[in-house]
Amino acid sequence: MIKALELNIGLRYTRAKRRDHFISFISLVSMLGIALGVWALITVLSVMNGFHNDLRDRILAVASHATVSEYSGVLRDWPSVDEKISAHPEVMASAPYILGQGMVTRSKQVHGALIRGIEPGREAGVSKVLSNMIRGNVDALKPGNFSIIIGKALAQQLGAQLGDKLTLVAPKGRVTPAGLLPRMKRFTLIGVFEVGAYQYDSALVLLNIEDAALFLGFKDSVSGIRLNLSDTFEAPRIRHELMAQTAGDYYIRDWTQDNVSFFSALKVEKRVMFIILALIIMVAAFNIVSTLVMLVTDKQSDIAILRTLGMAPGSVMRIFMVQGTIIGVIGTLIGALFGVVTAINVADIVAVIEQAFNVEFFPGDVYVISGFPSEMRFSDVMSVIFMSLGLSFLATIYPSWRASRLDPAEALRYE
């Protein structure tokens, strides 16, 4: 427990005197270093949270929260399965789909394609693709019309416009008198979408589910059922409940499993960035060590007099711990204040900088995300604050211990 006398002396040592301006300057540098580190760490973590959320939302705009299929990859009697799955209170919408791979060609252009057959009327409940149409009308995606919707990047690669004929080639061939021939069919381009995720904008093609069934050789079955859940982050729990509800008869996956490598990489990236920026705070904490070491050397006679007057070594130690901790607390609070303000207004701040210097950090025609999304999380802010305070406190222990071990007779010998 710190006593009032110890706190008072520690505060007096923190303020500058005529003969120790250099020590006070080092203290100021340490304080500013901690503030800068905390500021940068809170801002960067918030921006990374914003980027991660934006990327996740772009993926979930196309990928479903969960999918239900059979272990063979083909779901038979899907209407009864759909009715059973939809009975779960947290399943908000469902839609059957047919999935296959192939190639899409136009003139001499050939590109790989992920073929998805959908029911247009139900697809909007489990995906945002149809709400991101930039050209065309989804109403034309009717069975028997053999129409197709593709992503913006794929349309640019093919040089395709609305009304053009595109040829789809499926890897599963058909047996004819002439031998095994690939499945080929011409489709009319009736729409183009853009969800902002290149892996979908450059490869995904949408067909009516009945046309897809004919083209890919599905009879009375589908690949599976896509689900929209009430809470995206509860998808793993809901998946387990659905598996228990269906007695494990069906293969059920959620979005966290389908993108586990991608989101694991994002977590590792955030963790590494935290460690790198925390080094700024650690360097500032080492400055606190040097500040206190010089202060102890400068205050040897004061320490000796206090010890001679009966002050215990523990009290002397706490005096210098007070000074070092104050440097850390002030620097941390200043950095946290600026970090929170910057994280909340980072988009506006970046816009002002871009306008002032006539630069664009993330050009929209190059990067998927052209702005600076930010999400400040209370847990991140508190983690940074506690880490900064902890490092500042640890930095005071050794110099303060050295001060408490000072021999008064040796210190006053040449005074």
Which structural traits does this protein have?
53% helix; 415 residues; single chain; six-stranded mixed beta barrel; elongated; alpha+beta; 12 strands
Coarse structural class: alpha+beta
Number of domains: 2
Taking the sheet with the most strands, its summary is: 6 strands, mixed, barrel
Chain-averaged pLDDT: 83
Order of helices and strands: HHEEHEEHEEHEEHEHEEHEHHHHHHH
Supply the number of helical segments: 15
Strand order, biggest sheet? 3-4-9-6-8-7
The rounded distance between the terminal residues' Cα atoms is: 32 Å
Descriptive account of the structure:
The protein is 53% helix and 20% strand. It starts with a helix and ends with a helix. The longest helix is centred in the N-terminal third of the chain and has 40 residues. The chain is of the alpha+beta class and 415 residues long. It is elongated and about 105 Å long. Helix 2 packs across helix 12. The protein folds into two domains: 204 residues, no CATH class; 195 residues, no CATH class. It contains 15 helices and twelve strands.
